[in-house]
Design goal:
Aspartate Aminotransferase, domain 2, alpha/beta, globular, 13% strand, 40% helix, 384 residues, 2 domains, Aspartate Aminotransferase, domain 1, three-stranded antiparallel beta sheet, seven-stranded mixed beta sheet
Amino acid sequence: MSDKIPLCVPSIGAEEHEAVRRVLESGWLTHGPHNAEFEELFAKYLGVRHAVCLNSCASALQLAIEAHGITGEVILPSFTFVASANAIVRAGATPIFADVDPTTCNIDPAAVAARIGPRTEAIMPVHFAGQSCDMTRLTEMADRSGLAIIEDSAETIGGLHHGAQAGSFGTSCFSFFPTKNLTTCEGGMLATNDREVAERVRILSGHGIAKTTYEKDQTAKPWYRSAVVAGYNMRMSNVQAAMGVQQISRVDDFNDRRRQHAAVYDEAFASIAELSPPVEVDGNHHVYQMYTVQTEGIDRDLFLEHLRRDGVGASVHFDPPVHEQQFYADVDPQRDLPVTEILSKSIVTLPMFPDLTETQRQRVIDSVRSAVEASRLIAVGAGS
């Protein structure tokens, strides 16, 4: 269908085009002056002391674990993208899965408490779809047990928990993939109040060399490069950072528009018994990186197929959950994740992006209504 409504479209305007053009003309395409500018703006927005541009959120998560010296167990939800667990494994630690809250789809603090053991070194809350986890309870738990907090904030740039930014409670990691609340095409950011952690991440991300190419170019011997550790190449380019500088100035506007779309969806779906719209918890400010509904009493996959045939780019986040994926099937045999397993078979993600038009939004609503009816009739017929 030529007029298909995509799941997400990034909001890129003339400002980003002009910023990228200027960088291309400057000739300084790799890590450069815009990285420092983007980092400063991002740290200020988040309310933390340090931010480090990287090539992805996955890299940020891995480097966060390495920079903290974590080699034991890290508790996280299985209801997340596999990159969260992959980062733990690649850093040399062990993922331990805890169940999630059925209303918010965020990690359940009670389930986390039940999984803390003698080898636990960190908790990795994953803020789902634009809403912060219960960071009040999780940080209290971490403080009591002497655990690090590694926040996976890939989906929640601008989300608030009792007025504090998601991603400001520990060492946090953000994604700038095109589906996220701001984008640099690809890319990520690590944020922290710990200067030593930030410095270790900078060194690890640049081949283990203490100065970037841009910094060395300003010295008397720019050719001198000496690695202090065996690092990686996980840097963000100057081109991407220039986009990020423009996007961070508009992210609150992007999020306000997402919230407006979500309010319309909420009202439209409130009367549909088979759907449960997302719930914004008291004290939280949801920024709707995704808009998800939970289905009940209908065939979820048939519902989804109907939407997609109708030109609505709906999807599922996340099926299968991480613990059911081939590599992780035997990693944590003691897991008990009934809510995660129900959610993965009942959740649907609907189109959500700032520039969603009123016409597109209404088409989504109309398609959802007809898809529910079609799936309900098929389900009744199948059981007769």
